[in-house]
Amino acid sequence: MNIYSPSTTRSSILLASGSRFGGIFETPSNENLVVEGIPKIPASLAETVDRYTNFRGASLDSWDPVKREMLISTRFAETSQVHLVKMPGGARTQLTFYPDSISGALYSPASGNAFVFSKDIGGGEFFQLYRFDNESGEVTLLTDGKSRNVAPVWSYDGRKLAYGSTRRNGNDVDVYTVEPANPKSDHMLEQLQGGGWEPLDWSPDNRKILLREEVSANESYLWIADAGTGEKTLITPKTDAKISYGVGQFSKDGKGIYVTTNKDSEFQRLAYIDLASKQHTYLSSHLSWDVDEFDLSHDGSTIAFVTNEDGFGVLHLLDTKTGKEKAVPDLPKRIVSGVRWHKNDRDLGFNITSARSTSDVYSLDAQTGKVDRWTYSETGGLNTANFSEPQLIHWKTWDGREISGFLYRPPAKFSGKRPVIY
User: Fold this and answer.
1) Any idea what DSSP says for residue 81?
2) How far apart are CA 333 and CA 313, in angstroms?
3) CA-to-CA distance for 136 and 115, rounded, in angstroms?
4) What is the DSSP secondary-structure string of 120-160?
5) What confidence tens digit (pLDDT) does each residue in 86-100 have?
6) What are phi and psi of 112, to 5 degrees?
7) What is the pTM for the complete model shown?
8) Angle at 132 between CA 128 and CA 137, to 5 degrees
């Protein structure tokens, strides 16, 4: 049962300043919630709790392909908008101003003169793609303004964008391509059946597109489509065993693809698939953890990937020639996500979240091991040093298997038995 919501808090703030001094006012009930036998909540308590819901986070969207600058998403008022950050710890320059949240922004691999972003209207999730011109500030709609458009991916030369769209019938996701600099070039490349299709990557010669067909959370397939004709070829044969494939990227020479998959394993492993033989070579079998995501450097020499290790997101660097891991700085045990290589193949950007910090953007110099923090997000004026750090614990299940979890202990000032939320 939810007896508190941010909308309730905003109402309570408007009641009167007297709530701050005596707490004599009460928050109005949510009209969509039936409350029985629950004491009314003082407005002063709602205001106190509201500080914990007003943390501002930041996440990396895209590196500028030439400059050491980046686009990030961060909340402004009630929505996430695109901001430009020009240096570690630098000011956030807001670029988009909409009543609706922006979901991702991507520079072209060839130029930082413009970027493409995704936005819906009113939370309906009928996402549209737009081009933002950095010089003029002009925003151009690239899609039809009605359908749901997802998973935009740039070609290597930065001329075209591939994406999935329900434009044809409102249900099936077909693959479209468009030159963002020429919106009239938008057209359907491949008509497909089902709503689980998405483009993942372009081949380095810009002639092929890697597609993923998701049937369920446990079953998905990879295809390669001709970027000119739309003709597609199945790369992962359909068998009785249900296999899941996650993210995927072409190798630098275009002869194979790197993927995450649970094929022949209980874990999502990093693998290389040779396109000629369809043979899988597993690259993270030495780790008994799921690989959540990865990104291949632009020169193809290094894969940055993140494993979910007991609930922590752990960063790894893999040399694609030797198959061995490279040294990574000893980052504090937190959640690492959103790994993105700069085109200079030296700077690796990522997000870090912990119990004492909201999501912020960092970068790692892969040559020197130096870590830079790019954003410092606000935390409602609270001293996060007082927040409880979780304790990683393990216990045995009835069948002898070991599982893990995080235990948040109450402050020392609270003694005796405490209620537990799990």
Assistant:
1) E
2) 8
3) 12
4) -STT----EEEEEETTT--EEE-S-SSS-EEEEEE-TTSS-
5) 999 999 999 999 999
6) -95, 20
7) 0.86
8) 135
